[in-house]
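Quick bug: Putative dyslexia susceptibility 1 candidate protein isoform 1 output formatted oddly.
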Amino acid sequence: ALELLTPPVSGNANARMKAHVRRGTAFCQLELYVEGLQDYEAALKIDPANTVVQNDAEKIRNIIQGTALKSHD
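Here's what came back:
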């Protein structure tokens, strides 16, 4: 899908950002956290002020570093 959004211009920036987030989410669901984080970081290059993406990227970093909070049942 990202290939269809080239060349990267301001007119397709939002669609490219969403595509990176969706692919990053899919990688994380497959427990491919490093790959997922790469897509989230690519999304942040497009929209650095997006706090939702910033927070999600931080959660992924914590998972990679093994410091993710575990829920208490």
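Actually, after a second look the formatting is fine. The mean pLDDT is 86. Closing.
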